[in-house]
Amino acid sequence: MAYERLDEALKMLNRRQLLELDTCARCALCTDLCPVYAESKNPLHAPGVRSSRILSLVNKRLSLWARLLGPRPLSEGEFEKLAESTYHCTLCGRCMEACPFGLETHELWLSVRDLLNLLNQTPPKIRMLREMLEENGNPYGLDADMRLDWADYTGLEEAPVKDRAEVAYFVGCTTAFKAINQEIAYSIASLLNELNVDWTLLGEEEWCCGSPYLLAGDREGAREAAEKNVEALKARKVKTVITGCAGCFRVMRWEYPRLLGGPLPFRVIHAVEYVSEHITSGDLKPEPLDARIAYHDPCELGRLGGVIEEPRIILKALTTNPVELPENGLESRCCGGGGLLQAVSDELRLSIVDVRLRQASKLGVEIITSACPSCKLTFNDGVRKRGYNLEVIDLMELLARQMGL
Amino acid sequence: MNGSGPGGIRTLDPRLKRPSLYLAELRAPERLKGCGDLNLSPFFRRERLIVILGDKGEMPLSVLTLYAFSVGILPYITIIIFLMGVILRAFRWLSAPRGESPPLSATSAIKYIILDIVLFRKIYKHDKVMWLLIFLFHMAAASIIFGHMRGFKLWSAELFVPLGEGFKHFLVETLPIYMGYLFIATQILLLFRRILLEGKKLLSHPNDYAALLLLLATSIAGQGMRIAPPEMVNTTYTVSFIPRLVVLHLEKIPSAPWFLLHIILTQLFFMYIPYSKLIHIYSGVITAALYGSRRSEYGL
């Protein structure tokens, strides 16, 4: 089956991407910065080697020679190796930032996932995840009516689901369904209440943002999810959508217009952007701590989302002792929590986060913050595994705590 | 027109004192009268023919043939193979769907071409030693290409006259020799790096090595031309690879073996570019321009 659809799959790569593959193949200038390769030391996980593998398929099937003389046979295990290479990647975009040729590798690797999906070559756990997405509209296989359970668990008094509002808080699946992250939702909701914002949740009408679909190579699924969410938001005449999840933020802000073929009727911002404005204006005045606190830039918020300064404004309001981690901002080192890496190798994910936690420990960091539920989850797992003396907390949680909320 | 070789071919320049080899361009076929005993191959009889003559007898016919071939025929083959490679690549690129691309921002595109392709900003940020190596390699390559342009009359040494005669001499005569050594040394180091990374961070294709070795051999032959004593000084010499289009003007007659080797290898290298990873010479500039435009789109 895979062979039959191979040409169709390879034709999913666009002109720019073929140009990028030609430029990327067998170059190793970014390899040392790849968080996955740094830990696995497996050449198959190096970005340039991944490009070579795809290019080899393209040459065998779509080159002029192949068209004139017939396609060349594939070598044994070629798809399996490509799938291993493609899914042993956190999609952090570090290779893109390091590439002297400015290749948009993040998008390229997503397209390769599309290609593998069409060939039915995605790893089994990724296929399971897609099934759950299709059945429940979230990657955790939970019913939609459990989306607001976090409000009960955290004791939030006011969690409105209105027909119309100025602002919508898009919670996201990893925040709503993962117990460890539900305090993030509580904190953002409390801050919105504190600011007397006319805001709403989407409740059961909130659908997966589409990010896991894209990571699993299902662009059509992502488009459908985008349509559902945009419809629900449009119906409420929302002007601003706030989310506390870096993945939701990137997909809604940057991918939705592409998926839906036009600009959105509302602006999408991350909670840190919204809150930093209110800190600067003096509307929010948290009690600063004296602890050494570091902010870790989530890849999808910083490098891939363009939000870098705002979390630092918040951090400076929260501590008299902010610590800047090495490899920050656009150069941020991935925590390991992205790209669905956990589904193919949890061990590797924990090994990657350990590097970041070591960096923080060396600097005497007492509290490590981020602005992404996946980062929080991964940091928490890493701290538990190695017993680091570090508190892991989301920036919004820390802000709410220092506001006494 | 005074000397006469044993083969009955007259040498063309009386100033030639020790003509171990003599390169002369015959502009008209009648000049070949008396050369019949050489049993020259057909392309020798064409107009604008170049022949290598020896002082104690003509060069072996095989070398003569090779030389004539390399300046009379090979340039056309080079162009055909090069263009074919470019067409094959372009065919593959253009047969793919157009896809989404950022709206072109000329300012941002130029900015990031300069920062990332000329200055290698990103490599500098991450690996200073690697940056130095890559920067020196590319700077040496750029200066060598620039130097060659003088031979093709795209600029003249007079350009440097305002800087003083001494400095002009340094730029035109001395510096190129050091650039040649630098170019070769950096290539060898980059080749070693590739060998060391092989199987760890790289899984090279044999043609990656072929391309690098070809470039190295071309550079060594070019440097050989510079450091080996020329056949003759103060004699201008014109090599017409493609009449009126690619004509090389030399200020002295170079050492023939190195020259012959250099022009053959250079053409082989050119032919190979579109089929190898050296295609990044072109594609890298385009992708860097797209990157700049994307950053502009994202407001970064």
Q: Could you walk me through the main structural features you see in this protein, from its secondary elements to its overall organization?
A:
The complex is a heterodimer of chains A (405) and B (300). Chain A has helices at residues 6-10, 15-24, 35-40, 47-62, 64-69, 78-87, 94-98, 105-118, 124-136, 149-154, 173-177, 182-194, 211-215, 219-235, 246-260, 271-281, 309-318, 341-344, 346-362, 373-386, 395-402; strands at residues 167-170, 199-200, 240-243, 267-270, 289-295, 319-323, 367-370, 391-394. In chain A, the strands form two sheets. In chain A, strands 2-1-3-4 form a four-stranded parallel beta sheet. A four-stranded parallel beta sheet of chain A has the order 6-5-7-8, with helices on both faces. In chain A, strand 3, helix 15 (246-260) and strand 4 form a beta-alpha-beta unit. Chain A has 405 residues and is an alpha/beta fold. Chain B is mainly α. Chain B contains nine helices and four strands. In chain B, the strands form two sheets. Chain B has a two-stranded antiparallel ribbon with strand order 1-2. Chain B has a two-stranded antiparallel ribbon with strand order 3-4. The radius of gyration of chain B is 23 Å and the shape is globular. Classes of the chains: A alpha/beta (405), B mainly alpha (300).
Write the layout of secondary structure elements.
The complex is a heterodimer of chains A (405) and B (300).
Chain A: H1 6-10, H2 15-24, H3 35-40, H4 47-62, H5 64-69, H6 78-87, H7 94-98, H8 105-118, H9 124-136, H10 149-154, E1 167-170, H11 173-177, H12 182-194, E2 199-200, H13 211-215, H14 219-235, E3 240-243, H15 246-260, E4 267-270, H16 271-281, E5 289-295, H17 309-318, E6 319-323, H18 341-344, H19 346-362, E7 367-370, H20 373-386, E8 391-394, H21 395-402
Helix pairs in contact in A: 2-4, 4-6, 6-8, 12-21, 14-15, 16-17, 17-21, 19-20
Chain B: E1 22-26, E2 49-53, H1 61-72, H2 74-94, H3 106-118, H4 121-126, H5 128-151, H6 165-197, H7 206-227, E3 237-242, E4 246-250, H8 256-272, H9 280-297
Antiparallel strand pairs in B: 1-2, 3-4
Helix pairs in contact in B: 2-8, 3-9, 5-6, 6-7, 7-8
